[in-house]
Amino acid sequence: GDSVTQMEGPVTLSEEAFLTINCTYTATGYPSLFWYVQYPGEGLQLLLKATKADDKGSNKGFEATYRKETTSFHLEKGSVQVSDSAVYFCALSEPNDYKLSFGAGTTVTVRA
Amino acid sequence: KAGVTQTPRYLIKTRGQQVTLSCSPISGHRSVSWYQQTPGQGLQFLFEYFSETQRNKGNFPGRFSGRQFSNSRSEMNVSTLELGDSALYLCASSPVVMNTEAFFGQGTRLTVV
Fold this sequence. Notes:
The complex is a heterodimer. Chain A is an all-beta fold.
């Protein structure tokens, strides 16, 4: 079955530091890949997505590239802010599967 | 455009009781799915509905059920509540299928005592 493996957290960084969160996946077909973010007390918000190999998703300074050869979708941001403190989830969805499969989530804390 | 609305936001129930949670999707969205979020198990898929038909179901006992109405609003029901059912229940809506984009509500926090 489908599965997503995320880098274990928590991750603590200083403001303006570089952030990377590793994500690898197992899928039977050609999934779409997503990064979601969850702020305290809230639901999930879509951060970025990629629907096919070599696509790069980007939003709010975050980027991730769909790497089929390494089955990876690592999240990166060049200079984090305190407001980026949240839990980040990598997820996939296979065509005609009608669901999202999530990684365990990575808690990121950015200190001023 | 209004987002996904889940009601109630918080619930406290006693073991053995049943509970119904409600989800109103974004206008025009026909796919609604439900997820359970717990510290130990993370985010787990419960079920997905499209045009009142369940298209996929996760690995949960039969105590968990759901339905979708003709206006795309959805409800999920949990009968004979157990302590382990305490969780954040999240609803997501999508125009057609999940592999385009899913929009999540703020969730219903269920506590079973």
